[in-house]
Design a protein that fits this description.
- There is one protein chain.
- The protein is mainly alpha-helical.
- The protein has helices at 8-12, 16-25, 46-60, 72-82, 87-90, 94-110, and strands spanning 30-34, 64-68.
- It has a two-stranded parallel ribbon with strand order 1-2.
Length: 111
């Protein structure tokens, strides 16, 4: 289930809101979406995401896992449209749904 979407800067700086989520939910691993091309190769932002995730891992002392996030936002918008949400109401919800989709993909891969 999606919990909350935080601005990247709050996560990178381990702001209070991020620290509280870590304390409340006590995760075993942080799962990060990794931008990939349609061919399944790492996209241009992948190196930046990997570097940021490693920084967060060091700060939180939690391991980081990566999963393909390709097309997750598109699928999230499709799901929200099916629920009858207009484009304006989707703001803030697309990222949560997309994150839950690629997290579920990661969980399925762990089985």
């Amino acid at each position: 289930m999606p919990v909350k979407v935080l601005p990247a800067q709050e996560v990178l700086s381990c702001a209070r809101t991020f620290r509280l989520l870590i304390e409340d939910y006590e995760p075993d691993v942080l799962v990060c979406g990794l931008p990939q091309t349609l061919a399944g190769e790492e996209g241009p932002q992948a190196a930046r995401i990997r570097a940021a995730a490693e920084q967060i891992s060091r700060t939180t002392n939690l391991p980081v896992a990566f999963t393909d996030e390709r097309l997750s936002s598109r699928e999230a918008k499709r799901i929200l449209r099916e629920q009858g949400l207009p484009e304006r109401s989707m703001r803030g919800k697309v990222d949560m749904v997309a994150a839950s989709l690629f997290l579920q993909t990661w969980l399925d891969e762990q089985r």
